[in-house]
Amino acid sequence: MPFKRYVEIGRVALINYGKEYGRLVVIVDVIDQNRALVDAPDMVRSPVNFKRLSLTDIKIDIKRVPKKKDLVKAMEAADVKNKWEKSSWGRKLIVKKRRASLNDFDRFKLMLAKIKRAAVVRQEVAKLKKSA
Fold this sequence. Notes:
By secondary structure, the chain is of the alpha+beta class. Helix content is 45%, strand content 21%. Strands 4-3-2-1-5 form a five-stranded antiparallel beta sheet, covered by helices on one side.
């Protein structure tokens, strides 16, 4: 399977380190072999090292260094947010964030639900073994 996630203008990336951690950004220009200029609707355009970017499969069609309103329009047209939330990577991060926000009582309720589910599964497996 050939490599498909290239550093290119319009490629959507996830920042994987630093104060902007977890933010989806779009590469709007390549500065040099180590850095790219990235932008998002709710952030200031800034250079980011490639090591701090995780490239996604999502790509939008934009020109080099577009105006903010053109970028926002292109992101909405490409439906980037919904594509990200429907991807397995995006869903994993959403679940991870949701689990991190649970309080002690929520974790306790989750534990009880898992115990109940395991009991039901165990009973069904026992029924199947008995009938076989």
